[in-house]
What we know:
Layout: E1 2-6, H1 10-22, E2 26-30, H2 33-42, E3 47-51, H3 59-69, E4 75-79, H4 84-92, E5 97-100, H5 105-119
Parallel strand pairs: 1-2, 1-3, 3-4, 4-5
Amino acid sequence: MHIMLIDDDQDNMTELANLLQALGHSCDQFASAYEALEHHQANNYDLVITDLIMPHLDGIEVLKIILKKKPESIVLVITAFTNREVLAEIISEGAYSVLSKPLQLNQFIDTIEAISLQSGVT
């Protein structure tokens, strides 16, 4: 799959990109949500993985913008924030899933594999 990663934590994003690349996926990394959104319009990503808490534009806003412009997009939100109301809002806004940080490796890999199977892209 061609995956977009959005996270203002460069170390976390690099670790995720390395893992996804080891699983056979290509990744474009963005520390800025605004920059990521510009690239999203011009590229066909099979999956967007975004952090929730970021400066200037949070993951919920990223999710809303992406799905408004490309409703078929698959968006996975990752967060250390565990407020139930916020997590419910993320799902109600159309996220495929929300995964908690620190990521459980098996859960993350299983989720990526499920998305890959669902989208028909490997």
